What we know:
The protein is of the alpha/beta class. It is 42% helix and 17% strand.
Amino acid sequence: MLGRRNRATGARGEESQLESLRERATELAAIRALAVAGPSERATAAQHAKGKLTARERIDVLFDEGSFCEVEGLRRHRATGFGLEDKKPYGDGVVTGWGTVHGRTVFTYAHDFRVFGGALGEAHAAKIHKLMDLAEAAGAPIVGLCDGAGARIQEGVTALAGYGGIFKRNVRNSGVIPQISVILGPCAGGAAYSPALTDFVFMVRGTSQMFITGPDVVQAVTGEAVTMEHLGGADSHGAVSGVASFVYDDERGCLEDVRHLLSLLPSNNRELAPAGDLDDPADRRNDRLLDLVPARPTQGYDIREVIEEIVDHGEYFEVHGQWAQNMVCALARLGGRLVGLVANQPSHLAGVLDIGASEKAARFVQFCDAFSIPLVTLIDVPGFLPGVDQEHQGIIRHGAKLLYAYCNATVPRISLVLRKAYGGAYIVMDSSSIGADVALAWPSNEIAVMGAEGAANVIFRREIAASADPEATRAQRIKEYQSELMHPYYAAERGLVDDVIDPAETRSRLIATLGMLHAKNATQPSRKHGNLPM
């Protein structure tokens, strides 16, 4: 009897516990719904009125449907004073978690501007630190959806320490996992340094602003009156400062391109980029190139058209398209393999190398090398941009960044001289002398210390000056210099170019060379790290 009573009591106890779990599950669902809904419908409406999505709406656009898993969604701050003890919303103004993008794992943190203006406090920072550590451990990209008012002033130095932890992790993960920052609102003060440490920065016109000191401080200190958009808007950072890698008109288009970029990149530095389709024939001829590129070295053309003709399906993803437009850097596929394309742009400043172009290309080369993306360099460069401003602003130092990046790169490197390649700029653009694995050229190439006219004016200046017909003598000497030192096969005869190829065979030759270099294994000398020109 006793045993039966115990069994009966036990059954009633289990039934009571199950009822309690149901109640707790209902309570949990209500709490989660509160956390997801945010502070109020009014706050959500205010966000939408600015043309901005909420943090969770952005996450829905970024990730594959139903794949997002939140981390620490119920965390709350523990700060007191200045009324904070009465305001302890779930999540503390940032949504963190992971999901899939085109089926591959990606981590994200998204500031919720509706909560404390997205300002960072101790708990808020701890959530981001946790997520960054998880991304590093999982070997997966991390995307920051930034829309915050900076450090939470009410929490004082604790908030500043939170930023320090983010910066430290940005640097530790640099070259380990892809890091992407998407600026979807304000990003001011010290908060701006985290995006600056990441690999790519996306911005949206009209709603994104980044600056260290705002317009009011600028005017108080310097007397300059400036708007937030002009000081730190998307177009300013896209075209002038070079901080923004990509600029868009709306958030959804921006986030769709974040998805596209993630589909191209490897998840980490131990993996190769995903392979693309092989339905564009590797042996497809490029006869259009024979008419696209003018034979005259001084005549301009758009290098993007050359890129479209060569790469798979004519598709490429250009980085920093608005900044330093005399250089084009893009990700594309050749024979299904992801490559990084670096090319001079003859249609802008004749494709010269200047400070902006050197920095743009150096950063891109370093990224490709860090994530095992082969480099293809298309060369049509007349030299470095001359001028007092360039010299005084440090063209020597900044140009050395590109030289250093190429020399330090261990990925497969192919260079192709389309037309002119003069002076030090030719060397810097991944010539064979600094380590290009294979150096190719078209029969229109002119590889020399300088152009024939300039060379003749230097070498034969006395003869030309003393001539009865200086112009005729100059023309004769220019022709002689061209025929002796600048003919298309001069560099090939001396082993500085591995082969001169028919432009129509460019695609097939590049793909074949990439296949040959696929298993390249380059070693570097033992060292802690080099001393990159800064």
